[in-house]
Amino acid sequence: MHATRKLWTWLAVICVLSFAALGWVGTEIYVSAPPIPKQVVSSKGHTLFADGAVQRGQEAWLAAGGQQLGSVWGHGSYLAPDWSADWLHREALALREQWALRDHGKAYAELDAGAQASLDAALKIEMRRNTYDAQSGTITLSAERAAAVQQVARHYADLFGDEASLAALREQYAMLPGTLKLAEDREALAAFFFWSAWSATTDRPGEAGLSYTSNWPHEPLVGNTPTASTGIWSIASVILMIAAIAGMLFFHSRHKEEDDPVPPKADPLLGLKPTPSMLATKKYFFVVIALILAQVGMGILTAHYAVEGTSLFGIPIGQILPFTVSRTIHTQFAVLWIATAWLATGLYIAPAISGHEPKYQKLGVNLLFYALLFIVAGSTATGWIGSLQNPGNEFAFWIGNQGLEFTSMGRVWQILLFVGLLLWVTLLGRGLWPALKKPSESRGLIAMVFLSAMCIGGFYATSLTWGRQTHYALIEYWRWWLVHLWVEGFFEVFATAVIALLFTRLGLIRAAAANSAIVLETIVFLFGGILGTLHHLYFTGTPTSVIAIGAMFSALEVVPLAMIGVEAFKNYQRSQAAEWVAAYKWPILCFIAVGFWNVVGAGLLGFSINTPIALYYMQGMNMTAAHGHAALFGVYGMLGIGLMLFCLRGLFARNAWSDTLLAWMFWSVNLGLAMMVFMSLVPAGIAQAVASIAHGVWYARSPEFVHSYLMELFVWLRVPGDVVFAAGTGFLALFACRLLGRGAAPAPAGRLGTAAARG
Prior knowledge:
The chain crosses the membrane at residues 231-251, 284-307, 334-353, 365-385, 412-433, 445-466, 478-504, 516-539, 545-566, 586-609, 629-652, 664-693, 713-736. The chain is mainly alpha-helical. It is built from 28 helices and six strands. The protein has helices spanning 2-32, 53-63, 83-104, 113-128, 143-159, 167-173, 183-201, 228-254, 276-279, 282-308, 323-354, 361-389, 393-398, 411-437, 443-459, 472-505, 511-532, 545-557, 564-575, 585-610, 612-618, 622-651, 659-695, 697-700, 703-706, 709-716, 718-742, 754-757, and strands at residues 39-42, 47-49, 71-72, 75-76, 132-133, 138-141. The strands form two sheets. A four-stranded mixed sheet has the order 2-1-6-5. A two-stranded antiparallel ribbon has the order 3-4. Helix 3 (83-104) crosses helix 7 and helix 16 (472-505) packs parallel to helix 22.
């Protein structure tokens, strides 16, 4: 107990110091973020972009689909260009061409090598010179550069409008004509894209060769190449990771873990009688399966748009379900169904752990279910309508689609979801409270479940921190607080603690050992995970300190994954511990799959893009998608399915169970995911990385490369994996139908069986 108390103290200290450091970085981003000009003018006094144009352009882009329609500073989708890289390249070419005609009377391509070299050198000087005046808030451009900016601005105004000559390009970008209806929005959009590219290439005040985005994107034309700190901190992070893994292995070898206890002769949960509130969680899990099916369908359609743009085998489905909508649903439903599975698991196990059914608990569980259903359906419908009708920037922010990846629902829906999560924490706390008050060996585990649940509910408030015109660098800062810390942080702690509790209730691990192990694992995970959030922010208008801190701590995130294989093997041994454990074979195998995908998806594929030098060339490429699919579904998705199956085991009669369907589901889903990742996404990501290194980010994301024979071949190579994966989710749906058809639920009890309530 004394050792566990020390671990809790260390956990508290690490959390306080880490969040203090993360908050300090936020203040530094606020101070040093690229300045938003009040106006952009030419040296002749002509106004290119007026006051407020950049902010309105940011709103217009987000309302048009935002990060579901290309990316800015590398964050967003991969089919349309990275608009900051695309603008930068187009402006550089336009300016250089103007100089060639002015000075030599012919096109740049017709000049000799000496004349071309002279223009190339002048281009770097011109594009990197910082002409922002802080007192007046004005960026002043030379007359020639102003003309180049106007030329590029016309291209984007026509692209986001309905200019017929750009129809083929829109098709390649999976865009519909008239994406932005108002001419004022299209003009402002150009201001935002210009500003994002200007920030990416203009030297910071007092710095030479260092832009506001640390020289991202890679663009040889303007001298955007990796900085020395990008390379140095990448090397340092790898060294630290190797040293930390060695230290952890040494620590593990010196501290022999206790052997698992002799398992009970019979299933301790066999006599568990679910309470009314536990039975009320059944409908959550069937909604989870429905969301999985919808997410997979949208994923297949979204992937196909990479070939046909706005059609599905010639059917113009993109007119009613465009890429921005299908991808929004695909990414949003992924988070929602995983979260719903975990929320329902918490509501199910709370009475099972405490042996207490609070008054009106069933009413609260039902109320929360219908509230969540309303939020999911409402946010999806209004986001879809907003994307098709484009009723305005204000509608998009408050009710429609905010255009931010994984956090796309309108602000009203975010507020309602936050309230719903607080209700969930309240219901969970009411159910766990008797167990939290009662001294027991597993009280530490129960406390970890409740504390992580409080963080899940409380930290969703970070989705409410930005406004319609918040600086884009700060939006990204707060967005990753939510996506990384909420999804990849506290939900994982919650799930790990829940799994440990389930194993202790089954008598497969000792409660005392699990107590210390969970706190220690949480310390190791959060020590790297909290500040590791910054690896998403290397090149988003942040100070160079973000590269140093993010690189070192994100390397530490990989360290605990080195022991995942050992834990997975132990879980496999536990699945063979006694004959009755076979009843929980598939939930346990799902937890073993989590270990595999933690190593492969979060570890190998994650670290392959986490170092600054790797991400410099691969940010916004398909290697990120490979990591995202393998980690999000492989780790968090399989966790959600495993927890769901464990709960369904107690909610339906055991003769309704079909091991055959679950076997087909398990192997199809995991094999299909592996095929999708390693036959399509990883090769496509490597090809893009080579193109990015050789020519620049603009080229790796250009329609010429994205729609090349090689890249479209990789898209078609997704089909076998997608089919196998989709079949796996189909088997899961059939399993659910079998439960509904044959599974008479155990009769509800006023109080739980003593085996379930035992501390």
